[in-house]
Design goal:
It is globular, with a radius of gyration of 18 Å. The longest helix has 15 residues. The protein has 296 residues and is mostly beta strands. The chain has three helices and 21 strands. The termini are far apart.
Length: 296
């Protein structure tokens, strides 16, 4: 048997721990395999630009009654060097509330770092950091940090990074990189409750934003690529109660590069951060676009 690398070992250990914890459920798909992959429906989608985000790198979104929250991502230190960007003088990251024409309504400043996922619920913004100190920053609408907690089922001081989050029925769902799955957490007790392992082919192993859809969860997927031309973004839809993979989606060539994800009036909405692992900064021609995803 081939030996596990560190990342694989940690993910496997976390999944085993999750099964054994009282009151915590692991999606049946991980144990039984779910449906045969060849029977899973696949659709195509295209993207339609709605408006530009405020200046910055938008890497996560969440719907609010007034419009759309957009989370800013900043790169500093080695991350800034990697993308040939200047180090920011202020490391606080913004969360902008805009209306559906892109007009800025409110700005909340947060202590999150390299934000790659966010949710809005319970009267708070939940910003998910992808750089030390990592974790989830619960921030009120006056820019005050209410709590900072690590993603569960990992070391107490480092629960790993996050690429998406959503709020539904009083629960927080987190797209955990270390667990390579979507973890439901009670936001009051911070107890983990349910894990949907994201098990997809290698060309769809990259995961990002998540959105709720009538008892199911969509997650942005993608391949490891070195340029916009090589990028192959996609979507996967999972049953939120069983973890069963329901369908997959491929984007037509030339579509925007999806990062965050949200559902509004029956349509999926996403954002193109302009920062993509392996690409040059702003290489995507749709950098900073907020766009609708249309099935074709």
């Amino acid at each position: 048997m081939a030996s596990l690398n560190k990342r694989e070992f940690m993910a496997a250990a976390a999944a085993i721990s999750l099964v054994e914890l009282p009151g915590v459920a692991l999606a049946q798909q991980a144990r039984a395999g779910g449906r045969q992959r060849q029977s899973i429906p696949n659709r195509l989608a295209k993207t339609t630009r709605l408006f530009k985000s405020p200046p910055g790198y938008p890497n996560a979104i969440a719907v609010a009654p007034e419009g759309l929250w957009i989370a800013e991502q900043k790169l500093s230190g080695p991350g800034a060097v990697q993308y040939n960007l200047p180090d920011p003088t202020d490391l606080h990251e913004a969360c902008w509330l805009v209306d559906w024409n892109g007009k800025l309504l409110k700005t909340v400043m947060t202590e999150s770092r390299n934000t790659s996922g966010m949710a809005y619920g319970g009267g708070y913004i939940w910003m998910c950091a992808n750089q030390s100190p990592e974790g989830v920053f619960q921030t009120d609408l006056n820019s005050r940090t209410v709590s900072h907690r690590q993603i569960p089922l990992g070391p107490p001081d480092n629960g790993g990074g996050c690429h998406g989050a959503l709020w539904q029925d009083g629960k927080l769902w987190i797209a955990s990189l270390r667990l390579h799955g979507i973890l439901r957490v009670d936001p009051q007790t911070w107890a983990p409750e349910f894990l949907i392992p994201v098990v997809l082919p290698p060309d769809r192993s990259r995961l990002h934003g998540v959105a709720w859809d009538n008892g199911a969860i969509w997650i942005v997927t993608g391949n490891d690529s070195k340029s916009f031309a090589e990028g192959r973004p996609g979507l996967a839809k999972y049953d939120a109660s069983t973890g069963e993979l329901l369908e997959t989606v491929d984007f037509v060539p030339g579509s925007a590069d999806p990062h965050g994800l949200a559902m509004h009036d029956g349509a999926l909405i996403s954002c193109d951060a302009g920062l993509h692992p392996g690409w040059r900064a702003n290489e995507s021609p749709t950098t900073r676009d907020i766009f609708r995803i249309d099935f074709v």
